[in-house]
Each structure stands twice: as C-alpha cells, then as structure tokens.
Amino acid sequence: MFYLTGIEQPETVLVLFPSCVKDGFEEVVFVRRNEERLSRYEGDQLSKADVRRISGVARVHWLDEMTTILYELMLLAKRVYVNLDEHDRFQSPVLTRNQRLVQALQANYPAHKYHRSGPLLKRLRMIKSPLEVELIQQAVNITGAAFEQVLKMVEPGVHEYEVEAEITATFLRQRATGHAYEPIIASGANSCVLHYNQNNRPCRDGDLLLMDFGAEYGNYAADLTRTIPVSGRFSDRQRKVYDAVLRVQQAAIKLLVPGISLEDYHREVGGLMEDELLQLGLLDKTDVKNQDPAQPAYKRYFMHGTSHHLGLDVHDLSERYLPVQAGMVFTCEPGLYIPEEKIGIRLENNILVTDHGPKDLTQRIPIEAEAIEAWMNSEIVTNQY
Fold first, then answer.
1. The whole model's pTM is what?
2. What domains appear along the chain, each with residue ranges and CATH number?
3. Do 36 and 1 meet the contact criterion of CB atoms below 8 Å apart?
4. Is 39 exposed, middle or buried (0-12, 13-18, 19+ CB in 10 A)?
5. What is the pLDDT of residues 103-136, one digit of tens each?
6. Closest CA to 7 of 71, 41, 50, 65
C-alpha cells in the first residue's frame, strides 16, 4: 500500500482498474471514515483531501461505501489481481486482513478469474527509483553515524544492551523511525550465533563484538554489519580472519553487476571463501576433494547467503531467480564463524547495482581494520555525516 500510494493508515484499500469503462474509476482509494471518536483515540485521520494529495489518486471514498461501489466494478471486470502478502521467507500462521478480503471476493464473485499481484509488484519493487535510493542512502547515513558513536564508547565491561541503547539514541536523534529489524549485538561466543538478539552479555577484553543493525528512514531500510575488537585492537588471529572476510566482501561486491544470477554469484563467493579458509588452515585440500557438492566444505564456517535484496523490507520482496539488474539494491555480507575460537566475523555493506559498476552506499562507514582501531583509540574524532 505504501509503495503504490504513500498511504500508511490502516484499513485502506486501493483498487486499480485501468481499462474501466466507467469514467473516473480507473483508480480508487477507500479509507476509513474520519470520525471524531476515532481521532480522539488514535490522532488525526486522513481526510479525502489528504488522501488525494498523498496518493495522487483523484477518486477517494469512505471504506463503508466500498461494498456498493466494488459490486459495480466487479461486474465490469472478468479477472481480478489480488494481494496476498507474499514473501518467500515468511508464511503467516493466521489469516491476514488481505486474505480475508480475497476469501470474501471469491465467495461473492465465484465466476471471476483470480490472479496474484505479487509477481508484478515484486518486479516493480526490485528496481529502485532515484528517490528510493536517496531514502536508503539516508537510512545508511544514520546507521553509519550510530556505528561511529559505538566505536567511541565500546570498551571492556560495557554491556551489549548499552551498545544497543547508543545505536537507538543516535537513530532517534537523526530522525530515523527506529530499527529496520531486531538488532544483533553479539560479543565473544555470541558472535558465532547468526541471529543472536538477547543483547545482555558484558563485552570482555579480548572479545570480538559483532553488530548487525540498520536504521529505518521513510520506511526504507539500511542493513549494516561490523565486527570490532572490544579492547580496541585485534589479536593476530582475529586480524587474519577479519582480513580474509574483508577480501571476500571486496571481491563479492565487484561481482554484483547486471546479468549475473544470484545462484552463480553465491557459487563464486563460495569459491572465494574456500580459498581463504585454506589459507587460514581451517580447511585442507582433502576436505575440499571429499566434499559433498550439495554441501560444500566452506559451509562449515560460512553457512548463510552472501546477499539479499534491500528496500522497504530488510529482506525485500524479490524474484530471486531473475538475473541481477541495474537499480537493484543488495546487501553483501560474507562471514566466518569459528565457535571453537570464539571468533565470529561478518561484514555487511549495501550495494546499488548500476550499468557502470557497483555503487557502495556504505562506503563512508569505517570497515578497514586499521580504521576501526584508529576510531576506537580516539585517533579519529570527526563525524563525517
């Protein structure tokens, strides 16, 4: 609804009928009636003029008028495209409002042909407009500012929740609407837990601190991961693993060009990680020779995907089997997780695909090990956002 209209008010219905023979009903928005009692409890509700201004749709009706108007429109149509809240990473265990509406339509108009609008909307949403890229960039900038604040305050003894609080405060001070997703603030052994979010452990000297967080701005998400040494300096072993992950990320970003499939992309990144694991001594040539092609040896230490679409959702709607195209925005987040050494390192940037090469939207956010250490030891004090 927000993508198509800019409207966020609950219980709003959009009807698109571009070939409608009844003049003026090609686009219709239905919103709940602006009543004083509802406004007293929930604040001001959208007026019809508000809806026209925000959405650009000229014809606006109250929601309680929809049954009568929709009846006439349905009789003029042969087929209906319905929105079913499709996402390949989530299936709701309960009926959503959209599903209940579809069930009512099918019961009342059983002779119509019904189709999914999901594939059409996914293809539209995968390609970001310049304005959408601006909003993602602003979310990224706010996220970067929060990370720089964290670099100044992390030291042995600080708790994970204090780090989260610092991030949240910076988000709100910079007019983000909050976190784009539940933040991961994982120190020590927790850094090897992919979706750790208890965020309640003290950070100790010698620990690594993996932070996966992103601001939401104008409903668009940033998605950043950085891993830093709690003491302000990487150990030799931590630095070797860190640099290996960074090299894989830098090479992977270069692969995000129009025409490559995500399957081929992930396969190539897996090969890059395999080479690094051999150099680190975590795999040997026998491991590689005897590996199951369906479960490569590198997945013992790098078990998740490298990239996903980013936009209105942190895992944005997409058709993952379509080739990469200019205008898409991806994360790039290789990682290595070595539980026996309590080393978990993930580095994540946000990348805009263009016809002239990948554009790193997070390029100003510190990532090189030397830069991280310099920030943490007060050698850099200027906020660049």
1. 0.94
2. 2-125 (3.40.350.10), 126-376 (3.90.230.10)
3. no
4. exposed
5. 999 999 999 999 999 999 999 999 999 999 999 9
6. 50
